[in-house]
Design brief:
The termini are far apart. The protein has three helices and eight strands. Strands 1, 2, 3, 4, 5, 6, 7 and 8 form an eight-stranded antiparallel sheet that branches. The protein is of the alpha+beta class. It has one domain: Electron Transport, Fmn-binding Protein, Chain A (Pnp Oxidase, Chain A), CATH 2.30.110. A hairpin with a 3-residue loop joins strand 3 and strand 4.
Length: about 130
C-alpha cells in the first residue's frame, strides 16, 4: 500500500527542497532528472536509490502513479545525480514484491513494514565524470 498522496505533495513542496542539497552528498540518495512528458520542462525529484552495478532500483513508496516514473517511461530514461556523479538511466521497468529482496536488510524491513510492493528498475549507464 503506497504512502498517502498528501504526504507526497508535502514532500515535494517542503521536504525535497530541504533535502535537495543533502541528496547530492548522502549515500543512497539522489536526484532523478526527468523531462515532463507534457510540459517539456526539466524536473528534479529527490529519491532513495540503490545500485547492484549495472542496475538502479528505486522503491515506489508512493506507488506506481508518480510523475517522475511516468516521465522516465515516456522519455525512455533520464538521469540520476548522486554523490558528485551523473548517471544516465535507461527506461524503467516496474517489478513487484520480488524487488524487496534486492534491498539492503534494514531498508527491506522498513519497506516491508510500510507495505511497499513496487519497485522501478532501470539500466544504469556508466557515470559521467564528476560534476
Amino acid at each position: 500500500m503506497p504512502l498517502p498522496r498528501a504526504l507526497a505533495r508535502f514532500n515535494r513542496v517542503v521536504t525535497n527542497r530541504l533535502l535537495r542539497p543533502l541528496a547530492l552528498l548522502l549515500p543512497n540518495f539522489g536526484i532523478v532528472v526527468h523531462r515532463g512528458r507534457v510540459s517539456g520542462s526539466e524536473y528534479r525529484t529527490v529519491v532513495n536509490w540503490w545500485s547492484d552495478g549495472d542496475t538502479a532500483i528505486i522503491a515506489l513508496t508512493y506507488g506506481r502513479d508518480v510523475d517522475w516514473l511516468k516521465n522516465l517511461s515516456a522519455a525512455g530514461g533520464g538521469a540520476i545525480v548522486s554523490r558528485g556523479r551523473t548517471y544516465r538511466l535507461g527506461k524503467p521497468v516496474v517489478i513487484g514484491p520480488e524487488g524487496l529482496s534486492r534491498m539492503p536488510g534494514t531498508v527491506r524491513v522498513i519497506l516491508d513494514t510500510i507495505d511497499v510492493d513496487s519497485f522501478a528498475v532501470m539500466p544504469l549507464i556508466t557515470p559521467d565524470p564528476p560534476t
